[in-house]
Every structure is written in structure tokens, then in C-alpha cells.
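#lab-general

N.A. 3:47 PM
ok so I finally got the sequence cleaned up, no stray characters, all 1277 residues accounted for. can someone with queue access submit it? mine expired

B.Y. 3:52 PM
send it over

N.A. 3:53 PM
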Amino acid sequence: MMLLHFLVVALTTWASLGSAAITEIHEAGTCAIYKNCGKKSFFGAQLPCPYNGAAVTPDDSTRAKLVDICGPSWASSKVCCDGDQLENLQLNLKKAENLISSCPACQANFVEFFCSFTCSPNQSQFINVTGLGRATSGNDIVAELDYYVQPETASDFFDSCKDIKFSATNGYVMDLIGGGATEFRGFLKFLGDEKPLLGGSPFQINFPWDETPNELTRLGYSAKSCSDSDERYRCACVDCPGACPSLPPTKAENKCRVGMIPCFSFAIIVLYSLVLIVFVLAYKSIIQFRRGPFYKPERLRLLQGNGEESEDEEEGDIVQSPEMVESPSTKTYSLHKALQSRFTTVGLFCAQFPGLVIGISLLIVGLMSLGWLHFTIETNPVRLWVSPNSAPYQEKEFYDNNFGPFYRAEQAFVVNETGPVLSYETLKWWFEVESNITAMKSPLYGITFDDICLNPTGEACVVQSITQYFVGDFDNVDDERWKEQIDICTSNPVNCLPPFQQPLKPSMILGGVEAGYTEAQAMIISWVVNNGQEDSALVHHATDWETALEAYLLTVQEQASTRGLRVSFNAEISLEKELNKSTNTDVKIIVISYLVMFFYASYALGRISFRDRLRSLIESKFTLGLLGISIVLLSVSASIGLFSLFGIKVTLIIAEVIPFLVLAVGVDNIFLLSHELELVNSKHPEEPVEHRIARAVGRMGPSILLSACCETIAFALGAVVSMPAVRNFAIYAAGAVFIDALLQVTMFVSALTLDQIRLESNRVDCLPCLRIEVSSPSQKGEGFLAIWIREKYAPSILKKEAKAVILMVFCGFCALALALIPKIQLGLDQRIAIPSDSYLVEYFDDLYAYFDSGPPVYFVTREYNITERAAQKSLCGRFTTCNEYSLANILEQERKRSEVSYIAEPAASWIDDYLHWLNPTLEECCRFKKGSTDEMCSPYARDWQCDVCYAERDPQWNITMNGLPEGSEFMNFFSFWIESPSDPCPLGGKAPYSNAVVPDYNRLTINASSFRTSHTPLRSQNDFISAYASARRIAESISRETGVEVFPYSMFYIFFDQYGSIFTLTTTLIVAAEAAIFVVSSVLLGSLRTGAVVTATVAMIVIDIMGVMAVWGISLNAVSLVNLVICVGIGVEFCSHIARAFMVPNIDVLDSNRSSRLKDSDERVWAALVSVGGSVLCGITLTKLIGVTVLAFTRSKIFEVYYFRMWLTLVVVAASHGLIFLPVALSYFGGSECTIEDEYGVYNDLATRRYRSLFEEPERAESEEDEEEDAEGGPQN
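B.Y. 4:20 PM
back already:
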């Protein structure tokens, strides 16, 4: 163990002056202590004698040694020390040089400070002996003294040393020589405190600061500055902030705000307010103008024959007088006719040959499902979220191949929430726990911790625990002084090295520290396990041992509770196991959700009457609903089989989400076809079933095609995304939606035909072989929902005032959502991904609460010939000729602005430690056996057995790097250094760097190397994202300045790379999907304006959902990105059918609106709502609302947040836009082109239909109204 008792020099007294007890004389030329007088104990150090006599003139040999140690300024003065003290002084100063040699100013100040203390002829002026002891020899010895130093001198001394780095621990030399002091008083106090057994002072040295006795004068001199203008004392940048260049400022994050509101949000609010004001003023002006006498066309005013305006006139109704109406011209859109004709043909074929169609459909689906033989699920998170072609993926591969996969960490927290966790009994218990963990064997392979642990020295496993301060042996714990032992170790970890030879920072093993480490609330224990390539024997052995560890720590939790403590832990396998447990729970919830939706759909499709139960048995649609849901599942199966055949792996997102998506689309189509068939049945009961089915398919087929094309293309666009999870989802979703649409218009149509034949044959649903003789039902009328939409809902929202309010409110919500989008957080908190009752919840809470260290980060160089001097200068930081913007210097400067760099610790620079290890003044470091240049001395070999490396070198080793090794000599010395232990020379490379450098001795180069540092504690997803972005920025700046290819690597980086571009990716996907929707809908609807309205409505749906995400705490990540893509598809489903019914209104529905005052676009909107509004509401809206509600009972937080919350928002927002906003928007901005089909198949526009309706007899209209009054109530339209 390294000793640092360089503070005190032994002085002895003359025998004749042994009676002096106190320093009585304080004047120039007088000593206070001199020579050695003995030891306190057999193992103690020599202590000085009290001597208050005159300074002496040394002999020539003593003078020469004094000048060699303390410098030429001591060449002529008298002294208060002898040769023995100088021997000890030199020995102990060399021990300090091992740590401070990279900073000449600090080294010079150390020498001056302790040379003055030991040998100054004016010693008594600033030293006062205050206590004596008795040596084993019987002599008086100094036990305590006061050392008076000028505060300015002490401060300058401290400042010159405070920033010197100790690379091996990513820490500071001040942690080792000053107890981590942050100012000069603490530094000198640590140096002066009596710690004889731990390398500190053998007696107590006090440094009084309050008062100076009159007879004393404080020692003062001009201490060297680390940024001294004299290059002999100037320190390297990494050890001296004043010697560093200034880094250019980072690009400030754009945080433009108006008060507390982001500028973007403020601009949206202002813009909407202005638009709203203009809209209200314009609306009022138009109303006023229309109510004026000059608004009404002369022709209409004369026709009405009075000067009063009716409400009809205000609405601008067409005059219901055939004498005054001109026959309008008709317009057709050939694509409408072609589509309806083709779908009518398809429907007729499927209705005429239902068995054949169903058989062929099942055969095709069965063949596609054969791809299940190649079915595989991708669970590896790296391959799920990161593209193999991406930089982070390739960097991880490089790191794993060169340095080995990042180690596996097993970590536990022992917490006392009511007080200090440390006690003698707790320590005894935990030593036993760790001993059991080390000794236990895994259940399958019989593996122990020693078989798989990280063992950098080959002598001991890495266990980061407070037990390692006691070398893992409870016998070293003193039952009375254990607190003192811990205080000593935490203040100077290098004096309590664990068996694996790396100092343990207190913050790594103790947490919740407020009043001192012995009062900490938590112990932190980490077992470090080697990792291997996926499916390797090492990984299997490690997971087997971790299984045993998990089981044992669960029992330890129970033990801890009996002691008033709490244990939380995480093994490397824990997260995956708990996520799988969560998935199993989610599967049950998903299945229940689907079953509920199935039963609802089956009920809602049928006509259940509790007054006529026999009839209800026939009119039930349970079998049809079952077939419809089965078709959805078949489409999913076919899609998975097809793409599995091409090697596209399934993910859990696909398994959980796509059935939901396809069920939403499929159920809606089922309702549309079923309800259209009911309408056809009521209008054309005399036609054969096959022809009625053909009519229904001809009407609804183009609408299904429209939604299916928009959704398929929107999802397919996601296939260009590089993120595998999103890409695979997009491919499977597009395939499933398209296949489902094909099956809906073929297989389901055939099933619908068979069901209608069964119904008209009075056969029982589910048991078609049973036939019940019941009276034929009266002609079916509309159900309650259809009547409500026709008579109440549609007319209400189409009133002028209502339309204006709806438009303003929905646009207002959209503006508000846009303003909230900047508030959306990024990331996916691990605590959300695990079940709420998982033992990992407490672990992650403790990790954020008590672990005050950030994750390690490595800056990796590759394929760079570091054996050349220029390359060495581009990397190093502790030599005066290192490049100003070298890798080490940039990392050090970034560390100083940790608020933006997130770098917390000095970088472990192997190149600096290696080259300083060669310094011949560090006699315990590089040593060859006598007469050899290829065989190293053992660490504790005697000095006479060894020669110091570079001692006779010409040019000599120096801080300017001149003469340091290059080429083959570099690699030769490197091979010795990398095997050198850290004790007694702390610069040895084996423990800290054996896994950090990849040498190639054949090519005489370094293939790869890493410079280790660590992040600041990262407490949130935003911290992780910012830390990764900062590391990227730093690596790019290093590469730019040095020409070295450098990349940053930390275990979490690969998962957070997505967040650098996720906003761009999200925007690109949604905009591309919107563009596809616009093109497809415009073409299939025959109107650019209607296509634009549909596209805008879908965009508003997505924007509103993103606004809710900001309010409801739903972060943007890959999961929510997939859900946003789903929102686009489902949004189309809510809008496309109504838009199609608007452009091609149902003639029978229009005929029923003769008495209404609605005109033009309003009438077509009314017809669209009456035709398909009930299907949209009963089908997709209520079906999904019921299914989503079930998800509220999940125990999985991720399912609650990213599925229940987002899907509930989707259903509510999409339904409100599709059923409220879209109709209003179509009435204002919908396309003017409109074609309809009458009962003879002739296409006319709406104006022609109005023209013809003027000549119909009133009696016919009245008879149709009478028929409507006879309509029966029911759950559907």
C-alpha cells in the first residue's frame, strides 16, 4: 500500500538539550526541531526531537544532498536538519512525485513547503512545538506542533495542485494527498492530521489561521503558479485551468420565449387570435349584409311578392317553383362509375358463388400463412430500435469486437429510510451476504462469481462495496473504530485499495450522504460480470448465475426487512424478465379487449328485440360478427406469414398493435356493408338477394377502397424508416390492412350473402339447420340512432351559427395543440416499461435517489498510429508540447462546463500515464532487472536489484516529450507498462487500462484505444438525451481538431440515438402520409377540395393527439411514433366514408330530404351523415371505445400510458373530428362536383335531382313520410 508520509522530516535533538519542552525562543537563526529522537512504537516512524537552539552549518555531503533535493537557493545558508532527515525527505517527496510530477509548479511548491518546514534556519519563527511524547528509547519526541503559514502562500500552494488529475481513477490527486479538499485550509489540515499507519503525518501538525502570536511570523514566499510564465514550472492544460485554451462556445439551444411561453407557441396563439377576430367580424358583416334590402336577387324577391325575408330566404333556398327553375346541366366523374360498376360485379360474383369465394379465400390465406414456419420474434432491443447501418450500431460493433461487450452490472441498494444505514451489526450481516453470493453456484452450470467476474488484475474480482475498504474480510473491521476506519478510507481511498487495485470512490458505494459518509442512508453494491457475444457460453453462464443471484437477493430482501432495512436490486437479466412478465399480463388484457369488442360488434350488427324473442334468434348477427372478426385475424395471419417468409421479424409492438389496428378498420367495413345492405333491403325488397348484395357492395366498395388505399400507402411509407421496429410495423400493418380490405369485399360479402339467405329463410343464427316458423317481419324501418342522426343531430350541426362555432372551436383546439407540441418530452423511462408491482420499481427509485455517479463514457480512437510523436501530441494532455486542442485537453475543458457537456470527471488518459510511467524520477515505476532491458523487476524488488528505465537516456525524459519512445521502442515499453500493477507505482497500466487499449505488436501500432470518463448523474430521460448529444458534439470537435477518428461510447447511447432525429422522423412520416392521403382521396373522390378537407381533418386529428400527449405526459419515442402512424390510419377511417358519401350521396336518402331547407353542400353533408354516420359511430367509435376502456385495467404502466391513453385520445379526437368537424368543413369547403345514381343507374348531379324533385307530386312525398313514421326502433341505423 502506498504511503504518503512525505509531510514530516525526522529531526533529533542533542542529548544535552533534551530537557527543552516548549519552543521558547522565536527568532531568526533558531530551530524548533532537529534530528531524530526515536519512535512511538516498534512499527512507528522516527519522530523529531524538540530543539530550540541555533541553526547549524551542514557538512559537505549534507549540503550537496540538500541542494539536490531543495534547490540551489539552499547552497550557503545554515539549516535545522541533518543527513538522516534529508534521506527521509527525499524518499517521501519522491512518493509525492508519483502523483504530481505532471505539474512542475505543484512539485516545486511541495519541495519549497517541506524543505522550509524541515531545514529552514528560521524555523522557530513559524513553528511552535506544543506537545511532547516519550520514545521507546526514553527520549523526548515531538507529538504536536503549530505551523504558521501565510494564507496567500498556502492558497497559492493549494491552487497549484488542486486540478492535477489521477487518470487511473478518473479523479484528482487532491483526493489522495488532500482528502478531496476544496480549499487550502482543508488541504493543509489533511496533511497535518496524525495518521501514522496510513501514510500520513506521524505526529499532529496544526495550521492555525485565526491569530498569530506576537513572537511568531508566518512563513511566506511566492508560490509557483501552474500557469507560470516560466515554462520550467508551467503545468499541462489538464492539470491547470489557467494553462488551457478556451473552447468555442457551444451553440445555444434555441429557447426563444415570450415570458414563460415558447415563441412558437406564442406565435400560434397570436395567429389564431387574429384569424378568429377576422372570422367573427367577417361573419357578422356577411350576416348584416344578407339581412339588408339589397342582398336578395331581384328575381327571387319579385317571385316571393313581399318585402319580408323568411328564414328560408336567409338560408338562400332554391325557389320551390317549377315555373321559375331552369334545368341544370349534369356532370359525371367516370372513375366513380367505373369503381361502382366493378364493385357491383365483384359483389354479384361473391354473392352468387359464396362457397367458392370463401374456399379460395381460405386457400390463399392458408398458403400465405405457411410463412409462419419462418416466424421469429425480435426481442433484442438493439436490433429493434437501431438500424444495422446506423453509426451507433456500427460503433457498438467496433467497441464489442475490440474491447469486448460492455460488462454486465449487478447492483443492489441497502437502504435505511429512517436513519444511517451503517452499523457494526449491519456490516457484519452484509459481509456474510456478500460471502454467500461469492460462494453460491448457479443452478444449471454450477458457475460461481469467480468464474465470470471482471478481473482486470487476474487476482481479484471487481466488487464495488464498502466491504472492499476492508479487503472483503470482516476480521479487518474494528468493532469500536469502524467509523473512523470508514472516514479514513472515504477521505483517502488510495490508502484503502481493494484487492482489484482500483480506488473506490465513496460516491460509488454510499448514497444519501448529508452529514458524512458514516451517516449515509444507503449502501450501494455492484458486482461486475464479464459479458460476451450473444448466445455465447459466457452469456449463458452469466445469465445462469444471475438467476441464482436474483433468487438469493429476493430472500435477502426478507432478511433486511427484519432489520428495519430495505434491499432493492437489479441483475442484468432482471429487466428483460420483468418486461416479459409485463407482456404476459398485457396479452390477457389485450385478449379480453378483443373479446369485448367482438361481442359488442356481434350484438350491434343484429336486431335484438326483447318483445319478439323468437324473431331475435333469427335476426341475431352473432355468426356474422364472428366471421367478420375471423377475417380480421386471417388478414393478420396472412400478413405475418407473407412477410415472415421474406425474413422480416415480428416485434412485440406488431403482435400487440396490429390486431387493434386491423380490427378497427375491419369492424367499420363490416358495419358499413351490413347497414348498406339493410338500406337496400328496405328500398328494393323484391330483388333477389344476390342483386341486393351487389347493390350494397357497389355503393360501399369504393368507400372501402378509398380508406384501404389511404391507410395502406400511409403505413407503407413507414417502410423507408431505418428504425427496424417502426419499419417492420409499417410493413406488417400495410399488408394486414390491404389483405383485410380484400377479404372484406370478397369473403365477407359471401358470408353476408349466406347470412341474408339464412335470415330470409327464418333460420336460427349459429344453428342454421334449425328453422322457426314466425310471422314475417314488417318492413324494417330505421333504428333509433338513424332517426336521431336524421332528425336531430345532422340538422343541428348544419345550422349557420352552429357551423361557425364548430369551426372556431375545433380550429382553436388545433391551435392550442400546436402551441403545446414543444412541451412534448422525449424518451421512454424504464420505470414505465415494467409492471407496477415489479421489484425493479424500488430499484430504479433508489438509483435516482441515492446513486450520485453518472454512467461511464469512453471516447474511442480507431486505426490511428499512436507510436508517432505527432499522434501522441494530438492525444496527450500532461506534457507541455501536447497540442492545444488535443483529445485530453478538449475533454478537460469540456469537464469544466459540465452543465452543457455532462462530463463529470477527468478523462483516464492512458497515453499520459504510460509516458509518465517512464519518468526515471519515479523510481518505483519502470524498472528493469540489473543488466537487462527486456525483463522487468517485480513490484517489491529491492532497489539494488533494479535499474530505473530512462535513467541513462540521452536525451533524458522531460516534460516536453523530447526523447520519449516512438515506433518499436514505444510498443516495447508499452508491453511492459500494460502488465504493470498499480502498487507501489499508481501509474501502472494493468488494472486501469488492460481493457482500454488494443495493441498490434506485429504491425507496431495501436488498433484502438479508449479514454474513459463519466457523465454527471443523469436523473431524467432529457438528461440522457442531452448527454448523448453532447458526447457526439465533443467527439466531432476532437476529430475536427486532431484528425483522429473518434466516437463516444456508453452503454445507453445506442438506445438514445433515435431521439436526435425523432421529431424530424415523426414530421416526415406524418407529412408523407398526409401527402399520400391527399393524392389518393382527391383522385378517388374526384375533387381536390374534398381531398384537401379530408387531409386537413386527419392532420388536425394527429395535431390534437400530440397536444394531448404534452398535457397527459406521453413522451415521444418509438412506441408513441408507431401510435401516431396508427392515428393517421384510423383518422382516415373516420373521415373517408363520410367524404365519399358526401361526394356520391345516396339517392334514396336524398329523396327523404324534400321537406328540409338544407341546400347544396349542406344537403349532401346531411345525406352523408344519415348514410354512414351511424356505421362510423356504432362501428369504429363505440367498438374501439369499449375495447380501449378494458385497457385501463392493465398493470403495465407502459400499456396504460402509450396504449390506453393514446388510443382513448385517438378514439375521442378522431370520432369528434369525423362526425362533427368534417361535416362542417365539407359544407364550407367540400368539392362542388357531385354525382349520384338513381334506381335506374343514371348518374346526375345534385342540382338535377333538385330540379326533378320540384315536379314530384305532393302525395308521393306524404306517403313516404307515412312510411317513415312506421319505422321500428333498434340499436342500429
